């Protein structure tokens, strides 16, 4: 495993806690829990559940924090979802669904395994730097779960949203807007057929974004990634990892390695439900 001072360690650990969080998006138990409180339809549950720690927020803060969605897609869900379920109800539903999903993936693991994993992941999440990281901060402020799987999922969620805040901050420094970022990635290693509808951008908006990427030197006239664009995005990924490294330095080498070992079988099971072209970017990563 990478050394504590190597920012790559933050990426290694991300590939282990992100799948734990991601059950809230991809497991049928999670969707059923949202539907049980009146949030029918995938996107109602998604926006309500992910935005709920912010309180009954309207669309603009969520458009800013989530970054990659077309504003009108967010506005279709917020603030109208709060007439269907309160943020408190959405929070309970997302935790219930996530715990039920994790229970299916971890029932063969000893209770002591789950307790230790939850304790170590909570210790790491307790070290996140929240200044300037809104989603990380509001998730870190939520009360700890009562049971090991609830504690495990909430700690994973705090770490992933905190890392995501840092990633958005790094993306902003490129000067690219959200649809430009998506369009560029889909010329590199992602699928436009998946990402464009999943983020709500029109064909016209997408085509205009690609034209801007050509004009700004991120894509060639043949729509291929340029060396400039590739280097700029590599810098974004490195900045994201550096900004997310603090919890692992605080946890220390021995406990971080132990946590990686504990999370590995859980992450491996959770990844079985993540779509190959998932927007969360784990399709090419494998816990090791």
UniProtKB/TrEMBL annotation:
Report the InterPro entries cross-referenced here: HTH_67
Q: What is this protein called?
A: SalK
């Amino acid at each position: 495993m990478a050394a504590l001072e190597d920012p790559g360690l933050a990426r290694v650990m991300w590939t282990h806690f992100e799948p734990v969080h991601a059950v809230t998006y991809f497991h049928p138990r999670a969707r059923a829990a949202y539907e049980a409180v009146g949030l029918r339809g995938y996107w109602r549950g998604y926006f309500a559940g992910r935005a709920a720690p912010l309180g009954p927020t309207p669309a603009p803060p969520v458009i800013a924090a989530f970054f990659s969605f077309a504003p009108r897609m967010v506005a279709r869900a917020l603030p109208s979802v709060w007439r269907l379920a309160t943020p408190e109800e959405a929070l309970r539903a997302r935790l219930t669904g996530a715990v039920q999903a994790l229970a299916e993936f971890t029932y063969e693991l000893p209770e002591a395994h789950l307790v230790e994993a939850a304790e170590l992941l909570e210790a790491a999440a307790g070290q996140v730097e929240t200044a300037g990281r809104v989603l990380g901060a509001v998730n870190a402020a939520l009360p700890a779960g009562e049971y090991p799987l609830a504690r495990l999922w909430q700690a994973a969620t705090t770490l992933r949203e905190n890392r995501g805040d840092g990633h958005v901050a790094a993306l902003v420094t490129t000067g690219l807007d959200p649809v430009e970022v998506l369009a560029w990635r889909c010329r590199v290693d992602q699928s436009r057929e998946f990402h464009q509808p999943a983020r709500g951008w029109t064909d016209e908006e997408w085509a205009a974004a690609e034209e801007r990427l050509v004009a700004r030197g991120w894509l060639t006239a043949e729509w291929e990634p340029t060396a400039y664009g590739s280097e700029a995005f590599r810098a974004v990924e490195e900045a994201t990892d550096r900004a997310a490294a603090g919890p692992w330095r605080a946890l220390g080498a021995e406990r971080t390695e132990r946590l990686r070992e504990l999370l590995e079988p859980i992450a491996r099971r959770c990844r079985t439900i993540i779509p190959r072209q998932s927007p969360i970017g784990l399709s090419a990563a494998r816990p090791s």
